[in-house]
Amino acid sequence: MAAILVVDDERSMREFLEILLQKEGHEVATAADLPTARARAGQGDLDLVITDLRLGRESGLDVLQAVKSASPATEVLVVTAFATTDTAVQAMKLGAYDYLQKPFKVDELKLVIGKALEHRALLAENRVLRHRVGQRGGDPEILGTSAAITEVRELVEKVAPTRTTVLVTGESGTGKEVVARAIHAQGLRASEPFVAINCGAIPEGLIESELFGHQKGSFTGATEQKQGLFEVAGSGTLFLDEVGELPPAVQVKLLRALQERKARRVGGAADYAFGARIVAATNRELEAEVRAGRFREDLFYRLNVIQLRMPPLRERREDVPIFVAHFLARFAAEVGRPRARLAPEAERLLLAYAYPGNVRELANVMERIVTLADGEVIEAALLPPAVRGAQPLPQAATAAAALPEVGIDLQAHLDAIERRILEQALERTGGVKTEAARLLSLTFRSLRYRLAKFGIG
Ligand SMILES: Nc1ncnc2c1ncn2[C@@H]1O[C@H](COP(=O)(O)OP(=O)(O)OP(=O)(O)O)[C@@H](O)[C@H]1O
């Protein structure tokens, strides 16, 4: 059972999710606006927050930030209308676990919630550590044949056998952790631990003791002596993900550790030497963070000995078919349907889509469609609206949205537009309602309701 907060300004949506999640055995609280959500998140102990991106005049991004600053380990899912995918991707950069586009299927929602809770359990269990290669993300092989990724692979081969500090930069989901693991796995100490920490996911007050360890009694709650990750990593690799999120005081301590190859536990009397190689990653522009005074320049230079830039997927489109095939095979095997294959239209759309959320988004899409498919052939209808290229009609909508001098009967106007669009969808699909629903990104049930409302069909 998990503690879940649902934030939506629409009452019907709140109630729908509340009932659904309670049936699944979760404890559910709801909030209709930002202040209520913030107050509930401030009490801590939430496992998951599901928030709509649009909350009247308020934004789900503010809910996300409030939740993450009150309790960084709480997972956040954002629900969006498909017109706002860019904002959804921004939400993922701000720490959301995933996003769901409306209209979503109940199975899809359950799948994403299950994954988010699993992720949280894994983090909690492991003190946000992921020791060793292979626990998450599978093998550390860097897939792709594009020039950009070939260059990355060559640089990895060059730096892996050295002990040089490496800074991996790139947008969210481009494979920065994959590269960190590859550097470790191809290094001379691959049998030593690979220890990863997400610097952005740990409360400020605890990060110093996570990294450097603490002595018993050094602060309230320090009931046992604890090793820091610099010690746990031995002479393996310590991967500092989201290094740009480190608070200033910890930046100072990290700088000193890197300069002297020594660290000290919180409350400790003496330094210990450490042998781990440091790989850091950031999806922020660290140079800009330095200019803004949020990241220490001296630490930046210490980390930035070798910089490896992970190209976004849109700069290496030729890798898309490789990832599609790779994740299809992987998830098909996982769900026990090894012969699953894509219908030609589904494949065409998957290869054409831009993937603003990079490889992670591609992997998520593949996992969803493979899991949700009924038979062996995966039809295009299962793809999220954004991948199907469903577009809101910005120009047409703006033209229809001109307000005449004399005013307008808004409801009648909207009804007329809706009716015309429904009719066209039916015309185009020869009256096949499931097809028409797909064209309009509606569920079948919602289409039927709308048709009945206008007495069509
Ligand atoms: N070149 C690649 N080869 C194989 N898998 C990849 C590659 N790049 C990314 N992936 C997969 O994409 C997903 C996201 O990768 P990863 O977690 O390394 O991204 P990231 O850049 O560290 O993201 P974030 O900044 O959000 O932490 C993972 O499932 C990973 O296995």
UniProtKB/TrEMBL annotation:
Residues 142-371 form the Sigma-54 factor interaction domain. Keywords: ATP-binding, Nucleotide-binding, Phosphoprotein, Transcription, Transcription regulation. The modification 4-aspartylphosphate is found at D52. Residues 3-117 form the Response regulatory domain. Pfam families: AAA_lid_14, HTH_8, Response_reg, Sigma54_activat. It comes from the Bacteria. InterPro entries: AAA+_ATPase, AAA_lid_NorR, CheY-like_superfamily, Homeodomain-like_sf, HTH_Fis, P-loop_NTPase, Sig_transdc_resp-reg_receiver, Sigma_54_int. This is Acetoacetate metabolism regulatory protein AtoC. It comes from Anaeromyxobacter paludicola.
